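Have a close read of this protein, sequence plus structure tokens, and explain what the tokens say about the fold. Thanks in advance:
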Amino acid sequence: MEERGTTAAVLGLDVGKASHWACGIDSSGRVVLSGRVANRAADVDAVLARAGSGALVVVDQKRNIGALAVARARAAGNPVAYLPGSAEKALRDAEAGVAKTDRIDAEVIARAALGMPHVLRPLAEEAPRAASVRLLASQLDFCTGSRTRAKNRLRAVLLEADPALEAAVDPSCAWHMAVLAEIGGAGGLRRGGHQAVQGGGRAGGRRLAGGQLAALGRARGLGVGREAVGSGGGGARPHAHPRHPCA
């Protein structure tokens, strides 16, 4: 860490997953500290102490990889602000011939805060309960999106194998998914027979069996193997599936 023995008016942090680059400048615009800082509480606390308790800490990411730096700055009593990525890029691109590096980005952040404070965004402190709700909502969105993508991908594979098979399968039904994983498609059903999918004894089982047998009878040579659907693929054996009322 390069230091020049003067407290900083602004500490710019180009944040990263494993480490940040910190650049501190004084009120005259002179760089007083610059260097890489590990993304660990003790290391962040140390650079905050070097910058001084009155230094404005500016980050380019306020959550995720920047969350620890923001939290430690607040704990140390430093004011905190956020420079949006679009503003940072515009400021860096204004310097012709300047390559993008962590050191340059950190200095751009610090100088923007000193000379153009209007481009900064305030960072209101978030209540712990609100932060927990936000994280849970974000995770729910991610899980919902992942589930939808997986279902759409399965339907695409089933359609390419045979439309009748796709129409017979309900990706929202855990029992249907268990059958596909165990049997591996129409070929597995041929070896296991109707009993392989009628452990549930419901209309959904009969429909699934009919759809798979119809697909087997109309194998159309689309380049998709009869065992392409599902991961089991081996000879299916009758077994008791959970009784899910999948229509």
About this structure: Strands lie at 2-3, 10-14, 19-25, 31-38, 56-59, 80-82, 121-122. The first strand starts at residue 2 and ends at 3. The two ends are 66 Å apart (CA to CA). Residues 58 and 81 are 5 Å apart (CA to CA).
